[in-house]
């Protein structure tokens, strides 16, 4: 693999963009600590000392309020605005300071852009708009039209190719803009407030479609937005800008749970956490867990130690097989049967570690046990008690509190009796308290 293939998809080093006179002097003053608002009159620092890398195949979101410098930054990334100072690399190749013809070639072949207000050619049909980047490359008419039709189908606009942009809704026009960028087949897509002009419902639909396309195509996307919920929903990583500077870069979880300063903390306080945090963010160590070969005695001990009425059963590779409850395990012991298979029950609910909390409420309510979290191979990687799910959304009970189960667990005394074990003095005292609390319900 070459150095360029090992390089990030995009790299920015110490970028400055100054508008006005004596721009290099302004850069030096900013580097020495002069505040942005103390520069000479008529001099505006739009981007100040911005450095970051965008990994191949990720959605990197740059977000901030109006005037934060995010739109200026994205125009620097494809050379629409010349940098005042700093360096930009695309796939390891420097694009700052190159000749105009070289810059045009990079924009044509390696970087596409989707604009906020669509920027479609009004006199061209939808399919001709999508095919336009290929036309600029000199691709044959038949080939570019075939590619355009293929991409239109991908974005849900099959059959609309012969319409004019004016005949389409705003959401459909933005799909054409995305299709045009995809038809260019560049490594990098720059999206500048691409969905902000759309109605909320259409906007959400477009966000979901972008993620679906990304799962299939694995493009490198730099997405600009002022909407934090949109940033959290789309971004693999997020760069937060304020007054021309990047103040924090991190995953949505990093930004939400560990804000770098008061500004970011205030920014994220109204975020819909249920749409950002995932099962993997809040899951706890799975317990009680027993292997299928462990037998009912081992299962009953694990349940006793965890004060639970059921245990998860896994195979040797920790793939989740099902659950057993304490009463069925006790019956197996009394029958003299040392296997768990006859009493194994299906797991009521299991979820993926990537599922957002919003999608876990219904499964959690319907399940009598904490939700089991499994990976792609079905391995048990964690559990989410209902109280943990609620605590993750804001102030409330501790996430480690015991979840109340519909059927109380057997008392320690009952379990010890069946296992033929003698509790310690401390254990006897605890068993007596637990037995007093549960005897009337269990008997």
TrEMBL record:
It comes from the Bacteria. Residues 283-340 form the CBS domain. Residues 10-268 form the ABC transporter domain. Gene3D superfamilies: CBS-domain, P-loop containing nucleotide triphosphate hydrolases. The keyword Nucleotidyltransferase does not apply. One of its GO terms (molecular function) is ATP binding. Keywords: Amino-acid transport, ATP-binding, CBS domain, Nucleotide-binding, Transport. SMART domains: AAA. It holds the Pfam family CBS. Belongs to the ABC transporter superfamily. This is Glycine betaine/L-proline ABC transporter ATP-binding protein. It comes from Microbacterium marinilacus.
């Amino acid at each position: 693999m070459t150095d360029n293939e090992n390089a990030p998809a995009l790299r920015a080093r110490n970028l400055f963009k100054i508008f006005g006179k004596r721009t290099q002097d302004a850069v030096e003053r900013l580097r020495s600590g002069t505040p942005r608002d103390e520069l000479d009159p008529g001099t505006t620092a739009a981007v100040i000392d911005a450095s970051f890398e965008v990994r191949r195949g990720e959605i990197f979101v740059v977000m901030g309020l109006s005037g934060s410098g995010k739109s200026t930054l994205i125009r620097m990334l494809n050379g629409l605005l010349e940098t005042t100072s700093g360096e930009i690399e695309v796939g390891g190749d420097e694009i700052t300071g190159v000749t105009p013809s070289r810059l045009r070639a990079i924009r044509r072949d390696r970087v596409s852009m989707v604009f906020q207000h669509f920027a479609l050619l009004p006199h061209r049909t939808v399919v001709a708009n999508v095919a336009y980047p290929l036309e600029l490359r000199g691709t044959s008419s038949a080939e570019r039209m075939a590619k355009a039709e293929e991409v239109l189908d991908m974005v849900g606009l099959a059959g609309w190719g012969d319409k004019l942009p004016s005949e389409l809704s705003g959401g459909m026009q933005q799909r054409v803009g995305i299709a045009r960028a995809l038809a260019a087949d560049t490594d990098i897509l720059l999206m500048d407030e691409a969905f902000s002009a759309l109605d909320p419902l259409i906007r959400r639909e477009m966000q979901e479609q972008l993620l679906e396309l990304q799962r299939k195509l694995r493009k490198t996307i730099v997405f600009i937005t002022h909407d934090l919920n949109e940033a959290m929903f789309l971004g693999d990583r997020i760069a937060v800008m304020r007054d021309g500077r990047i103040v924090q870069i991190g995953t949505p979880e990093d930004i939400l749970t560990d804000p770098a300063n008061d500004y970011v903390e205030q920014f994220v306080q109204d975020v819909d956490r249920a749409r950002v945090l995932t099962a993997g963010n809040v899951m706890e160590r799975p317990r009680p867990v027993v292997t299928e070969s462990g037998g009912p005695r081992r299962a009953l001990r694990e349940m006793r130690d965890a004060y639970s009425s059921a245990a998860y059963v896994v195979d040797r590779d920790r793939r989740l097989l099902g659950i057993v409850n304490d009463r069925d395990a006790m019956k197996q012991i009394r029958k003299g049967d040392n296997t768990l298979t006859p009493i194994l029950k299906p797991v009521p609910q299991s979820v993926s570690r990537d599922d957002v909390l919003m999608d876990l409420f219904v499964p959690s309510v319907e399940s009598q046990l904490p939700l089991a979290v499994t990976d792609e191979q079905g391995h048990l990687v964690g559990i989410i008690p209902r109280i943990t799910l609620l605590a993750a959304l804001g102030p409330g009970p501790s996430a480690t509190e015991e979840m109340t189960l519909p059927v109380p667990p057997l008392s320690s005394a009952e379990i010890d009796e069946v296992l033929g074990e003698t509790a310690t003095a401390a254990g006897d005292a605890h068993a007596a308290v637990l037995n007093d609390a549960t005897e009337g319900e269990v008997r």
